[in-house]
Amino acid sequence: MRKIFVKEDCSNEVHLSGDEHLHLSVVLRARxxxxxxxxxxxxxxxxxxxxxxxxxSTALTLIERRVNLSEPKxxxxxxxxxxxxDKLDYVCQKLTELGFSDIxxxxxxxxxxxxxxxxxxxxxxxxxEAAQQCGRGKVAxxxxxxTLDEAIAEAKKFDNVLFFYEKDGKSFKEAxxxxxxxxxxxxxxxxxxxxxxxxxxxxxxxxxxGKRILRAETACVTAAALIMYESGELK
Length: 235
What we know:
This protein is of the alpha/beta class. The chain folds into 2 domains: 2-67, CATH 2.40.240.20; 76-230, Alpha/beta knot, CATH 3.40.1280.10. The chain is built from 7 helices and 12 strands. It has helices spanning 18-27, 87-98, 120-134, 148-155, 172-176, 195-200, 216-230, and strands at 2-5, 13-17, 35-39, 44-53, 57-67, 76-81, 102-107, 141-142, 146-147, 160-164, 183-187, 205-207. The chain is elongated.
């Protein structure tokens, strides 16, 4: 069923306009009588039937409200070095699909990307599209680029902080024995982590993903999938 995230309350009668209307009527080619799911992030899916469509808006009538069962029970966030090209696009899309709640781009010592080149609005649009496609109840948030110190402060709000490090660390299997509750994970960029940064992250559980050097975007998805599997979200 077609799904669209909206900001407004999902009342008995809804009129969509702007991007939501265009997405529904043009991209999804919805027609009068079709059913569509609206979601505003409150934990429910609202099932509507289309009553009318014109050039500027779509009129919907509520027929059912259901609890969304797709949202993970455990919150997880990624802190990742700024990545070149469209790699951050890919990471935002895949981590949204896997169930992560937040992506924090981080300016690190070996970052090869300028902070101002990160298009946060575009990345959040990618998160929204991915959430609609995979049936989530909430949209993952990609935050504005921040320093490592700022990212560490955010990470400390989580129950677990995991530092995926290319040089050394426990296996994920060893670390997973102590995982309970929410998790924040740090993954480096193309140049890895400097010694000073590794020392700053000394409080975190240090994990090594194996003998092979993974691309940054591969490491992000691999680490995220391991977290969600261990949390019981992948079966």
